[in-house]
Design a protein that fits this description.
heterotrimer; A mainly beta (176); B mainly beta (158); C alpha/beta (385); A: mainly beta; five-stranded antiparallel β-sheet; three-stranded antiparallel β-sheet; 34% strand; C: Peroxisomal Thiolase, Chain A, domain 1
């Protein structure tokens, strides 16, 4: 057998989005309304509560001695409960980064209209074990001057605006 | 330390709210195109598999039993059927209380194996019974949009 | 364990917007697979379905919804899901059913209709990230991959213009694939000049949003010999997941692919993959991913995949053709169906039935691989003629 043009020709009808939008073919629209309240659990619950206080807290595994961020109730490598809570610093280094021209829906940012591309990064927080990065944003930096290993520090929201969320840190900015 | 740390104060328990923010546009497909275009004309169509002697309503492009292609076997099955089973709904799809209960029935279209779930109208819950003959009541032609709601409801055949 | 062969295959055309419903797409793939080996649905003893998140087709419990169109009416049926890795886990899942002796035949079906998700299926990915520590930052899958590509590039000193060659190669290969959605003759400059999505990823570094379906039929040896003169044997299977704390991995290297590959190689008795594998279909949803995976698959040493690409080794006429089909970048990427499309490509290559895409030298051993979940799963199948 060989799969040929003839074989696949009838398998799909190739449309353009306009064919659907303008009703050349019939369609149905649906917007599911799904709202959730996720329990944070003890580890992330404390992590978020400490962020509200302007501190980053991690948890240690007594066996492999990793200091883990985000904190977790079990060590996924040793498969045992974790031990001590430890505060870590709000500084770190850039592990890797990206200069994004799209939003979360893959829609293009209005760069021409003056919107600046934003720069998400994985940041290895000082005081955690090597490679323990968290996802966050970089700012107050020329996107094209970001480098691997660059030292950064958290920029916190004012105390009264903090709600106990990862976004209580506005972003990380470079430090000397 | 145990895996579960006990909360000392229940007020420490926190949660995070969020959504799955999606929306969809579904094409009705090849068989669906036939079904709903005909529905706009006030007709109900099915698809017949000769070898399995089954008529599917709504129509499909294939027979699920023998996998024969049915695209050349669409047929008008008429608008009449019987109540296969039914219920009276007091709750809406999201679990909230409905202001007025509605009667929902699975209707077996005459001469087919197909079932359409739809509302029953022009009747009362206490008068509905399994095996009752019903017929489709379509919206006014100008209001039909090519969807299952082009049928307003089914009603008892007097 | 019993030997298991692929005896038939079917594949729809991959398109951006299909009129067909997900069920109708699945039916077309299965119909072609049955016809390809002249089997009837009644010859099929069980069905395995692979399809990625329910959020793409927008049908909750998509496996159940697709079951009748997958030929599973009153048959044992299972659906599995490991994100992008699904399409290559599907034949592994089917392999279990037949290798175990439980069934003599198994139909493996994969389907994805991404165009239902509106305005863009990328939105569905927001909710795969941790809902408290990551989702509030509104991550998109594109920048997650860009972040991985950056780490991969800076670790090895790779240049964007070299990685772009993957798009040039795969889209060109796809010209010869009848199902292809994005076949084209392009240049490195075209890739570099296409719009920046999330540096270092440009538009042409990414596979498209696609609708499509694929199916294969697996059979135990005694059935396979009866059905076809050219059974293609599933000779090694492997799959593995890395930690879901993805920010704590070093993204420059896919350890999970290595673990999966070593498992498959051990089963198949392969000691030197780069010499013993004649043709490969590594998963290429992004340009750099083909190279990333080639390294994980041990088809070259770490840090040498770009040289291999530049030297033409992975071209269809090279020593180790990679993605001769045109891959996800060229043929299209209806997630689960893409993985199975790759399996089908190796099936056709080993039967020397790939037409204009046929790699020279009568290949007898090939490999297909996919990757997915939260960038953490590797799925590998080694096949022999």
């Amino acid at each position: 057998m060989e799969i040929t043009e003839k074989d696949v020709a009838h398998t799909t009808s190739k449309l353009r989005f306009d064919d659907i939008k303008k009703g050349k073919v019939l369609s149905v629209k649906w917007e599911p309304k799904l709202n959730y309240a996720w329990d944070n659990g003890p580890a992330l619950g404390r992590y978020l509560a400490e962020l509200k206080n302007g501190r980053i807290i991690a948890k240690k595994c007594d066996k492999c001695h990793r200091t883990m961020l985000p904190p977790r109730m079990f060590c996924e490598l040793c498969w045992r409960p974790t031990g001590r809570w430890v505060y870590v610093r709000d500084t770190g280094i850039v592990n890797t980064w990206v200069v994004s021209y799209v939003d979360w829906k893959a829609g293009r940012l209005n760069i021409e209209g003056g919107v600046r591309p934003f720069t998400p990064a994985i940041i290895e927080i000082d005081g955690t074990s090597k490679g323990m990065g968290i996802l966050h944003l970089l700012d107050e930096v020329d996107p094209w001057k970001i480098s691997r290993g660059m030292k950064v520090k958290a920029v916190w929201k004012p105390v009264k605006e903090r709600i106990g969320a990862i976004t209580d840190i506005k972003y990380f900015k470079p430090v000397k | 330390m145990a895996l579960i740390e006990r909360y000392q104060k229940t007020t420490d328990i926190s949660y995070w709210e969020g959504q799955i923010p999606m929306s969809y546009i579904y094409t009705v497909g090849r068989a669906g195109e036939k079904f709903f275009r005909e529905m706009m004309n006030g007709r109900i169509f099915g698809a017949k598999c000769e070898s399995c002697d089954v008529t599917y309503v709504p129509p499909r492009t294939y027979c699920e039993k023998c996998f024969a292609r049915l695209e050349d076997h669409y047929a008008d099955v008429g608008g009449k059927g019987t109540v296969h089973t039914f219920t009276e709904c007091h709750e809406a799809y999201d679990g909230t209380k409905k202001q007025k209960p509605s009667i929902v029935a699975m209707i077996r279209i005459e001469g087919t194996q197909g079932g359409i779930v739809h509302w029953l109208g022009e009747t009362h819950f206490k008068d509905v019974y399994i095996g009752m003959s019903v017929e489709a009541v379509f919206k006014a032609k100008k209001d039909r949009e090519g969807g299952i709601l082009d049928i307003k409801y089914f009603r008892p055949i007097k | 364990m019993r030997r298991v062969a692929i005896v038939g295959a079917g594949l729809t055309k991959f398109v951006r917007y299909a009129q067909e419903t997900p069920k109708e797409l699945a039916y077309e793939g299965v119909r072609m697979a049955l016809d390809s080996c002249e089997m009837k649905l009644s010859d099929i003893e069980c069905v395995v379905h692979g399809t990625a998140p329910d959020a793409f087709d927008g049908v909750h419990m998509k496996g159940e919804y697709l079951s009748d169109a997958s030929g599973a009416y009153r048959k044992p049926y299972m659906r599995h899901y490991v994100g992008g890795g699904t399409g290559v886990l599907s034949p592994i899942h089917g392999w279990f059913h037949v290798a175990s002796g439980m069934f003599d035949t198994c139909l493996v079906v994969t389907e994805e209709k991404m165009s239902c998700a509106y305005p863009h299926p990328a939105g569905a990915f927001l909710t795969i990230f941790d809902h408290t520590t990551e989702q509030p930052l509104y991550p998109t899958l594109i920048w997650i991959f860009a972040i991985e590509m950056n780490r991969f590039m800076t670790t090895h000193g790779y240049r964007k213009e070299d990685i772009a060659l993957v798009a040039v190669k795969n889209k060109k290969n796809a010209i010869d694939h009848p199902s292809a959605q994005l076949a084209a003759e392009i240049t490195v400059e075209d890739v570099l000049n296409s719009e920046v999505m999330a540096w270092p990823v440009n538009r042409l570094d990414i596979s498209p949003t696609s609708d499509g379906a694929a199916a294969i039929i697996l059979a135990a040896e005694h059935v396979a010999r009866r059905v076809t003169e050219k059974p293609i044997w599933i000779d090694g299977v492997g799959w593995a997941l890395d930690t879901a704390y993805w920010c704590t991995r070093d993204l420059y290297y896919p350890d999970y692919v290595e673990v999966a590959a070593r498992q498959a190689y051990k089963m198949s008795g392969i000691r030197e993959p780069s010499k013993e594998i004649h043709v490969a279909e590594p998963y290429d949803p992004f340009t750099y991913k083909e190279l990333h995976h080639i390294e994980g698959l041990q088809l070259c040493k770490r840090g040498e995949s770009v040289q291999m690409l530049v030297d033409g080794v992975t071209q269809r006429t090279g020593n180790l053709p990679c993605c001769p089909s045109g891959g996800a970048l060229g043929v299209g990427n209806p997630i689960a169906a893409t993985g199975l499309m790759k399996i089908i490509e190796i099936f056709l290559q080993l039967r020397e039935e790939a037409g204009k895409r046929q790699v020279p030298g009568k290949p007898t051993c090939g490999l297909a691989q996919a990757w997915g979940d939260l960038m953490q799963v590797g799925t590998v199948v080694v096949m022999r003629s």
